[in-house]
Amino acid sequence: MRSFRLAVLMAVCVFASLALVAIQPARAAAPQAYKVTAWVVGTYTSAAGADESTFVLQVAEALKAWTDKTGTEACGPIVRTPSGALQVTLTTEKSQVVCLISTQAPAGDTLTGDSIHSHPTDGGRRKVRLTTLDLAALRALGRSGFVSMLQNLDIRQVDAEPDTFSPDDYATGPGYLVVGSRLLYQHGVGTAALVTALPATDEALASAPSTSDDNHAVR
User: CA-based angle 162:105:218, to the nearest 5?
Assistant: First the structure.
């Protein structure tokens, strides 16, 4: 029984690196299709015609501040609005291990093909004690059987190695990752690269782009 428990725990360690799960456009699903509550962290909008790299850096600073404060993930697709501005609406399930993102743009907007999300971290391997919100997010992915297995085996704490992109992140498509004090980017397996170091959280809060931050539930 102990060896089986260890084998299960190893599987959980791999799964706990999950950060970003997308709804593919072919499924014609909206974020509201997930049966789990999500909250808006903030909507960030650039000036018309803004450069993506500059805009993403500002959003990353605000996302770092959120993740450092809450210890949870947030994510959002980067879109171009009809006015030519770049925009990201960051949402969160307040989960430490999952962020659910739609790859459908809001009406009138155009996806740039990139997204941005965060991984909570303490600078290396960390222990994650799964919360009710973590389990709810996992169930929303259709992993109810997996959650039941964890509960039946009384596994509540797992190892996570969140310092880079997970296999699920690569499967979702190109995008940025805020982890610790770094902003990373990937456009396929083996392409992860450092974009830049991020400032401390107190500096980040003062430099965020235009935002509407209601922290209201969207589903």
Answer: 70
